[in-house]
C-alpha cells in the first residue's frame, strides 16, 4: 500500500510540474480536436466523447511499457536505447501531418482497410496520439521515477515494481486528463470552435509537429530549465523519509549478501574488512575461461581476487585497464585471480562480439563476465565505471576503489594480501604502468556531492545521507571536497540546514562549474578572489571559474539555505 501511495503522489506531483509543459498544448488541443470532412462523408465527424480518456490511456500504457520494459526489450534486440523515442517522434510527425492534410490521413489508413470499417473509422479516438506521446514523454526523473528506471534497467521487475510504475503513471495521468477534458469542454462550449473544427485540427497538427521537432533537438529540456521547479520541495517531502526509502528500494539493492560493503571506505590507503564478497550472478556469458565455464567465488578461496567493473567504450576504464592487465600478468602465478565484470552503459556494449573484441584489444586474458542485465553490478551495489573490489583468500572484501587513480595503493594492498595468503611467496617488482588519470593541465575528476556518488570526500569521518555537522580539514588533499557547517546530505545533492554552509574544493582545471538549484546567491572565494553566483530554478550548471589557463588551488563557496548543490565539473 505504501508503494502505491508513493507512486500515485509522485505521479501527481510530476503531473503538475514544469516537466509536462511541452506536451500540454498537444494534449489540450487533441482532447478537443474533431475530424475533418472526408470524401463521401455527409458532414464533419465530431470527436468521440471518449477521446480525452483514450489520449491519456494511450499515454499511460506506452509510458509504462517504455519505462519499465523498454530497456530490456531493446537490449534483447540489440537496438539503441533511443530507438523508441525516435519511433514516437516519427509517429507524432505522421499524425500531425494527417491532422493538417486529411487525404494524407486517409493514405495512412489504407493499409488497415482490410479490417472491419468500424475499426478503422476511428478518426478522433486519440488513442494513437496517446501511444506516441507516452513513448516520448519523459518527465523529470524524481526519486520515484528513478527507482522505476533502475529496476527496469537491472531486470528487477516484480509485482512491487509494476505496482509502483502503474500507480506513478496513473498519478501523472490525472492532471493531464484534466487538461484534455478542458480542451474538449472548450470546443463544446465555444460556438466559434464548433464552427471552425478544421482550424482546431490544424492547430493540433501544428502543435504536434512543433513538439516532434522540439523533441528531436531537445528543446523541451532547455525550456524546463528556464522554469523554476515549483514541485521540488513536494518531491523531497514525499521521498526524504525512511518509509519511502524502504518502499523505493524495490526489495533488491541492499541485501544480507552486500550489506557489509558499507564498512569499506572508497580509496582507503589501508586494508579494511567489509564482509564476505557478494556472489557473481546473472552472467550471460564468460570469456577467457576453460570452455566458457562460470566462476564461483567460493571455489577461489585461497586466492586473492580482484574484481574490476568496466565497460569497453568507457574512457575512464580505458585508462584504468592497463593497470589491471599489468597486475594480472605480474601476480597471477603468485595467487592473484583477476575477474572483469563487463557491465554495459549502452545497448551496443551488450553485444558479446563487441566485448570480446574490446577485451582482446586491451590485452585482457583474465576471465571476463558479460553482466548484461547488471545483476552482479546490482549485487555489489556498484555505481561506477571503473570500480575495483579486492577480496582476500578467505573471501572477505578488504578494499574498494571507485573511478580512476589510487593504483599504487591498490597494488600495495594486493601484495600485502598475497603475502598474508602465502608468507613464502616470492613477489616480482611492483608494476610500473604510467598513471594516465588526468593531471594538472587537464581536470579534477567530476565531483558529486550527493551521498550516492561521493568519490572524493576529504572528511573527516564517513559521508552518509542525512543531517549532520561537518568540519573542513585544516590540510585538505588535492582533488577533494569538504563540507563545513550544518548540512543535509541527500542522495543527489547537499543543502545547508543553517543560514549558510561552506564547501571547500581543491581543484586542478582551466574551468570549474557547479550544478545547483533552488533560490539564493552563492559567495565564491577562488584563492582570495571573490565573486558571486545567483542561483534560481531547477538544476543547471553555473560557472565558478571561467575557462582560461590551467591552474590549481582552493575554492571556498558560501552556500545559503535554500540552495541545493549537486556536483562540480571541470574543463
Give an account of the 3D structure.
Helices cover 40% and strands 19% of the residues. The protein has helices spanning 2-15, 24-32, 51-77, 83-100, 102-109, 117-120, 127-136, 143-153, 159-189, 191-195, 197-216, 219-226, 232-239, 242-248, 315-331, 352-361, 375-379, 407-421; strands at 285-287, 304-310, 336-342, 368-370, 387-391, 397-402, 447-448, 466-470, 481-489, 494-496, 500-509, 512-526, 529-545, 551-560, 563-570. Strands 7, 8, 9, 10, 11, 12, 13, 14 and 15 form a 9-stranded antiparallel beta sheet that branches. It has a 6-stranded mixed beta sheet with strand order 1-4-3-2-5-6, with helices on one face. The longest helix is centred in the N-terminal third of the chain and has 31 residues, at 159-189. Mean pLDDT is 78; it is low at 34-45 and 114-124.
Provide a compact summary of the structure:
By secondary structure, this protein is of the alpha+beta class. It is built from 18 helices and 15 strands.
Amino acid at each position: 500500500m505504501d508503494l502505491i501511495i508513493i507512486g500515485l503522489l509522485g505521479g501527481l506531483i510530476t503531473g503538475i510540474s514544469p516537466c509536462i509543459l511541452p506536451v500540454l498544448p498537444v494534449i489540450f488541443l487533441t482532447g478537443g480536436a474533431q475530424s475533418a470532412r472526408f470524401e463521401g462523408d455527409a458532414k464533419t465527424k465530431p470527436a468521440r466523447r471518449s477521446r480525452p480518456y483514450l489520449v491519456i490511456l494511450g499515454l499511460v500504457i506506452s509510458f509504462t511499457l517504455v519505462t519499465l520494459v523498454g530497456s530490456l526489450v531493446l537490449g534483447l534486440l540489440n537496438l539503441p536505447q533511443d530507438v523508441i523515442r525516435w519511433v514516437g517522434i516519427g509517429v507524432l510527425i505522421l499524425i500531425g501531418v494527417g491532422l493538417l492534410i486529411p487525404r494524407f490521413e486517409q493514405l495512412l489508413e489504407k493499409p488497415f482497410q482490410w479490417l472491419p470499417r468500424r475499426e478503422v473509422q476511428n478518426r478522433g479516438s486519440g488513442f494513437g496520439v496517446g501511444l506516441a506521446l507516452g513513448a516520448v514523454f519523459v518527465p523529470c526523473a524524481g526519486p520515484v521515477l528513478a527507482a522505476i528506471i533502475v529496476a527496469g534497467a537491472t531486470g528487477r521487475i516484480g509485482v512491487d515494481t509494476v505496482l509502483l510504475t502503474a500507480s506513478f503513471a496513473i498519478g501523472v495521468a490525472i492532471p493531464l486528463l484534466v487538461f484534455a477534458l478542458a480542451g474538449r469542454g472548450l470546443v463544446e462550449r465555444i460556438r466559434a470552435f464548433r464552427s471552425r473544427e478544421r482550424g482546431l485540427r490544424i492547430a493540433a497538427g501544428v502543435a504536434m509537429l512543433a513538439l516532434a521537432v522540439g523533441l528531436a533537438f531537445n528543446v523541451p529540456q532547455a525550456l524546463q530549465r528556464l522554469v523554476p521547479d515549483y514541485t521540488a520541495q513536494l518531491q523531497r517531502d514525499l521521498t526524504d523519509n525512511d518509509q519511502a526509502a524502504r518502499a523505493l528500494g524495490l526489495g533488491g539493492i541492499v541485501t544480507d549478501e552486500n550489506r557489509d560493503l558499507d564498512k569499506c571506505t572508497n580509496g582507503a590507503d589501508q586494508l579494511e574488512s567489509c564482509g564476505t564478497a557478494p556472489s557473481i550472478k546473472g552472467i550471460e556469458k564468460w570469456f577467457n575461461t576453460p570452455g566458457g565455464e562460470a566462476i564461483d567465488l567460493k571455489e577461489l578461496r585461497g586466492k586473492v581476487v580482484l574484481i574490476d567493473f568496466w565497460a569497453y567504450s568507457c574512457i575512464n576504464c580505458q585508462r584504468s585497464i592497463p593497470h589491471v592487465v599489468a597486475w594480472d600478468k605480474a601476480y597471477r602465478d603468485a595467487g592473484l585471480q583477476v575477474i572483469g565484470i563487463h557491465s554495459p552503459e549502452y545497448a551496443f556494449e551488450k553485444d558479446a562480439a563487441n566485448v570480446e573484441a574490446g577485451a582482446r584489444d586491451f590485452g585482457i586474458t583474465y576471465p571476463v563476465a558479460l553482466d548484461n542485465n547488471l545483476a552482479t553490478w546490482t549485487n555489489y551495489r556498484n555505481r561506477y565505471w571503473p570500480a575495483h573490489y579486492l577480496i582476500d583468500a578467505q573471501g572477505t572484501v578488504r578494499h574498494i576503489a571507485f573511478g580512476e587513480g589510487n593504483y599504487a595503493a591498490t597494488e600495495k594492498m594486493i601484495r600485502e594480501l598475497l603475502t598474508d595468503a602465502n608468507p613464502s611467496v616470492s613477489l616480482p617488482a611492483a608494476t610500473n604502468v604510467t598513471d594516465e588519470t588526468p593531471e594538472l593541465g587537464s581536470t579534477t575528476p567530476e565531483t558529486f556531492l550527493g551521498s550516492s556518488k561521493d568519490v572524493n570526500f576529504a572528511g573527516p569521518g564517513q559521508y552518509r545521507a542525512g543531517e549532520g555537522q561537518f568540519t573542513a580539514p585544516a590540510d585538505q588533499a588535492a582533488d577533494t571536497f569538504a563540507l563545513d557547517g550544518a548540512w543535509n546530505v541527500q542522495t543527489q545533492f547537499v543543502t545547508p540546514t543553517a543560514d549558510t554552509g561552506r564547501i571547500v574544493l581543491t581543484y586542478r582545471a582551466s574551468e570549474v562549474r557547479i550544478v545547483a538549484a533552488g533560490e539564493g546567491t552563492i559567495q565564491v572565494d577562488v584563492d582570495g578572489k571573490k565573486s558571486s553566483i545567483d542561483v534560481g530554478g531547477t538544476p543547471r550548471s553555473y560557472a565558478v571559474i571561467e575557462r582560461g589557463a590551467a591552474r590549481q588551488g582552493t575554492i571556498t563557496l558560501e552556500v545559503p539555505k535554500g540552495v541545493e548543490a549537486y556536483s562540480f565539473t571541470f574543463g
